[in-house]
Amino acid sequence: MAANTEAALKILLVDDQQSHRMVLSAELQARGHQVLETDNAESAVRLFVQCRPDAVLLDVEMPEHNGHWAARKMRETEPEGWTPIIFLSGLVGDGDLATGIEAGGDDYLFKPVSPVVLHAKLRAMQRLCSQQRQLVQLTDQLKASNASLQALSVRDPLTGLTNRRGLDVRLDEELRAARRDKQPLTLMLVDVDNFKLYNDTAGHLQGDQCLRRIGQLLGETCRRPRDLAARFGGEEFVILLPGTSHSGAMLFAKGLQKTMRQLALPHPAEGKRCVTVSGGISTCVPDGSTTIESLLSRADAALYTAKSLGRDRFFCFETQADTNTGHAEAGHYDRDQGSSAEMF
């Protein structure tokens, strides 16, 4: 008998008559296929789940559960896959064929099985299996590409941090979670001090390098799984700290200031002084009236207060304190009173 040039298949052969199984199994193995045998429907379903064959030859008429029952059970175990099921039957009526197809079968072989027809149908199933594998591979590649594009769509290309789009999504998620769990949520709006002077003096390329380094530092300070550093726009960043109280936020801000001083990025327009940041802190246990806009607005007002107090500090309205002095008298500072060009 000529060797089969198609890829070998793992075939589950189900027939309650041992003589039929022996003949078919020998024919299949002679063509290089691996054969798993059983004589009942329940065992067939178990083998199908455990071994995941490439094709099933399934007798229709068996005691207790028949082949149609087994086919339905097999289909239930592979909602996203597809394994060819060929029924073996002596019933040749149109109704019998329709019932088999509805049960999940793909084709019929009439007993006694012709070896020529058997191998012709298996070759067709091999081609279908090959096409399915290619389709699965292409689908996986497409999913990976989509996941990569999704990641890029929420990533700031300059700093590598989450961008404004990604921030909005996370803010909504964390706001809902904090409201549901009645836990505090802290948002920090961080701005690089005198960054316009930095760009005007050193140029925008050096300014970009400065932002990259600061972005890296902010990302490294967010060590808990749900903490987030994001680029808000320009030289402004947002740090999101779920489950962090006012006191915890102030401690975090002081630690961030210390790390910035250790980084010691020279500011080209300020002599021996280094680059500093100012920040506004907004912390609350959200209720039904709390919105993303209200959190950002309060953090923005606190940032302007920090700028008005001399920069290089973080200010929090809830504690009426800044990280440099521990207290402040500018809790009601109106950002419209000052010029952003002068402060920033």
TrEMBL record:
<dbReference type="InterPro" id="IPR000160">
    <property type="entry name" value="GGDEF_dom"/>
</dbReference>
<dbReference type="InterPro" id="IPR011006">
    <property type="entry name" value="CheY-like_superfamily"/>
</dbReference>
<feature type="domain" description="GGDEF">
    <location>
        <begin position="183"/>
        <end position="319"/>
    </location>
</feature>
<dbReference type="Pfam" id="PF00072">
    <property type="entry name" value="Response_reg"/>
</dbReference>
<dbReference type="Pfam" id="PF00990">
    <property type="entry name" value="GGDEF"/>
</dbReference>
<feature type="domain" description="Response regulatory">
    <location>
        <begin position="10"/>
        <end position="126"/>
    </location>
</feature>
<dbReference type="InterPro" id="IPR001789">
    <property type="entry name" value="Sig_transdc_resp-reg_receiver"/>
</dbReference>
<feature type="modified residue" description="4-aspartylphosphate">
    <location>
        <position position="59"/>
    </location>
</feature>
<keyword id="KW-0597">Phosphoprotein</keyword>
<protein>
    <recommendedName>
        <fullName>diguanylate cyclase</fullName>
        <ecNumber>2.7.7.65</ecNumber>
    </recommendedName>
</protein>
<dbReference type="InterPro" id="IPR029787">
    <property type="entry name" value="Nucleotide_cyclase"/>
</dbReference>
<dbReference type="InterPro" id="IPR050469">
    <property type="entry name" value="Diguanylate_Cyclase"/>
</dbReference>
<dbReference type="InterPro" id="IPR043128">
    <property type="entry name" value="Rev_trsase/Diguanyl_cyclase"/>
</dbReference>
